Amino acid sequence: MDDNARMNPQELELHYPWHDSLPDPELGLQVASGVFWVRMELPFALNHINLWLLRDEVNGIAGWTVVDCCIDRPTARAQWEGIFSQLMQSLPIVRVIVTHMHPDHIGLAHWLCERFQAPLWISATDFYTARSVSLGRHHFGGDAAAQFFAQHGLIDPDALEAVRDRLDYFKRLVPALPMRFHRLMDGQRLMIGGREWRTISGFGHAPEHMALHCPSLQVLISGDMVLPRISTNVSVFDTEPESNPLTLFLESINRFVPLPEDTLVLPSHGKPFTGLHTRIRQLHEHHDDRLREVMQACDERPCSAADIMPVLFRRELDWHQTTFAIGESLAHLHALWHDGNLHRHRDDHGVLRFSPNPATPRP
User: What pLDDT is recorded for position 2?
Assistant: First the structure.
């Protein structure tokens, strides 16, 4: 089969320098001078994460900077052991950078930092959010989350029960966290391997996501902010119930527009690619189309977030995917609501529904 036959039309507008090649599990794949791609499996529908290893030297100690870590599970630790001896050639990790606090990115940070006495670098917002979640101060589940989804129209009792039972979701994937960190902030400059890397903050997907750009290599480690095949999950959750994450996300990806079009983008999921401006345009067009579809659905009848799920997601979803899908459906409703295109009311059953605001032009 031709390489392009498996690609959707939008992917055909991008260029994948390594085509279908994947990195060796223990040797990785060099994608730029001193920059290596490692791919680890995940036990989810999104079945992998890309990690990036950068040759580095800190305080005269030659070693590696690691960007993102994978969730904590035996297969990931075993793969790391092979990487330590093969790709890293027994040189130490001198710094662990985490783009954001989601489990597949931060899960093994504690293990790597402790093993090599290496410092953690992460935004303060994501560090303290991860600490709060890990200490049980709020969850990606429990009664509050179930009640939140129920008021937005989720009535499947099995899904709601699964949400109530998901009190230890984060803790299972991230059993521990480093006790201290170095703060990453927008526009910060880091010297890694004798080259300057600049941080670019992003919002909407995580509290304060940090991407890394190296002008001399023309490389962007985009984390989850710019992915080549899928659109980043952007959701409203019970901990910030009236947030507007989709607008934040779309504003954030515009921060990458000043970078050259031929920048090599290293995403957390999918394959390295070039065509950054093209992909940013695609993401804006994708969400513009989805917002029009949401507006049309609300024109036909007042809609809850659960009503919008089949509009945005035309495939069968398991309960785990459903919680992200309803959060993303609500993010689209909130973008239109915050802009004044929709107004919100609570129906006789206590469900929040959205209807067009007749005084506001359609998006």
Answer: 32
Q: Please tell me whether residues 252 and 308 are part of one structural domain.
A: no
Range of the domain at 311: 301-356
My answer on whether 196 and 234 are in the same domain is: yes
Model pLDDT, residue 139: 56
| pLDDT for 319 | 73
Residues 42 and 190 in one domain: yes
Give me the residues of the chain with pLDDT under 50, please: 1-5, 363
Same domain, 281 and 306: no
pLDDT of the residue at 341:
97
Cβ-proximal residues to 218 (8 Å cutoff; 6+ apart), any chain: 260, 262, 263, 264
pLDDT of residue 5: 42
DSSP assigned state of 339: T
Angle subtended by helix axes 143-151 and 157-165, to nearest 10: 150
- CA pair distance 86, 38, nearest whole angstrom: 12
Report which of 146, 153, 72 is spatially closest to residue 109, judged by C-alpha positions: 72
For the sheet with 189-192, list strands across it.
Answer: 189-192, 195-202, 209-214, 219-223, 264-267
List the one residue out of 238, 228, 233 whose CA is nearest residue 249. 233
Residues 6+ apart with CB under 8 A from 173: 71, 72, 73, 103, 104, 107
How far, in Å, CA of 244 to CA of 340, rounded? 12
* 130 Cβ neighbours under 8 A, 6+ residues apart: 101, 106, 170, 174, 177
What is the domain-level CATH number for residue 349? 1.10.10
Candidates 163, 141, 323; CA nearest to 239 is 141
User: Taking each helix axis from N to C terminus, what angle separates 245-253 and 319-338, rounded to the nearest 10 degrees?
Assistant: 80
Write the pLDDT tens digit of every residue in 236-270.
999 999 999 999 999 999 999 999 999 999 999 99
Q: Are 202 and 329 part of one and the same domain?
A: no
pLDDT at 321: 81
